[in-house]
Amino acid sequence: MEPHNLTSVSEFLLLGLSDDPELQLLLFGLFLSMYLVTILGNLLIILAVTSDSHLHSPMYFFLSNLSLTDVSFTTTTIPKMLVNLQTHSKSITYAGCLSQVTFFSLFGCLESLLLTMMAYDRLVAICHPLHYLVIMNPLLCGLFVLVSFSISLLTSLLHYLVMSQLTFCPEVEIPHFFCDLSQLLNLACSDTSTNNILIYFIGTIFGGIPLSGILYSYTQIMSSILRISSLGGRYKAFSTCGSHLVVVCLFYGTGLGVYLSSAASSSPRKGAVASVMYTVVTPMLNPFIYSLRNKDIKSALWRIISRIA
């Protein structure tokens, strides 16, 4: 078939997770519930941090930004998926697909960088406790978030440029519930070798460097904890970064699991099912991980609930 430029393609078809009408109804209820829990949980974290003066510290400043990123991350993909399930439609416009690719890379990269900043915050808190408030001052924390957003914006613009250069044949069917750039590269009619190299390069730089920073931070943290003589002191020091470590393992573990499952499986639909973990499940669990293990967050939430009641 004669390829057409992407701008001439009016819409794509998102095949979703299943073609079974009965299962689609179940999926709609399940994902709607998960989305609402994600929104509510993360907004409560943001409300608790902003309204309670006891939580006006660098760690909770980064946590509130992470919660806002999680809300934005899931909102990029889930609402369109819910609309398609409810209307029994599979279509997504060119503008909608382009927006999903751009914002998905923006908030995905921002989450990775914020987790790196939070690891550095824990590094300073444990390894340099006497200088913590001097090093992690409000100006530096704000600069960290601003730089992270700028880098993420650059990454999303690069993804936008890559997609805008692709050419497609008519009736493009994407075996996913959102516009995944790697799937679009596989479906393009034109030569995508250069685009693939660019995408892998971007992924290596903006995914590998933050992960290396997190690993370095925890190497220094563990080294510092092991020098503490008392067992109680070790536990107290490690408990301050336990929630963050769980979130990091969940985010990168599920992302790596999706990549490995996609590489090992010949079915793109199975890769779409696996990607639910880091696009939906992880943002939903983050508020629970931080609130259940953190007395300050629980106390702030109880004060908010008591005022409402």
Short description:
This is Olfactory receptor 18-like. By secondary structure, the protein is mainly alpha-helical. It has helices at residues 21-51, 58-87, 94-127, 132-135, 138-164, 181-187, 193-226, 231-239, 242-264, 268-292, 295-308, and strands at 4-5, 11-14, 91-93, 167-168, 173-174.
Order of helices and strands: EEHHEHHHEEHHHHHH
CATH T-level fold name: Rhopdopsin 7-helix transmembrane proteins
pLDDT < 50 stretches: 1-7
Mind telling me the CATH class?
Mainly Alpha
Whole-number mean pLDDT: 85
Radius of gyration, rounded?
21 Å
The N- to C-terminal Cα distance equals 63 Å
Task: Give the total of domains.
Answer: 1
The CATH architecture designation is Up-down Bundle
Number of helices: 11
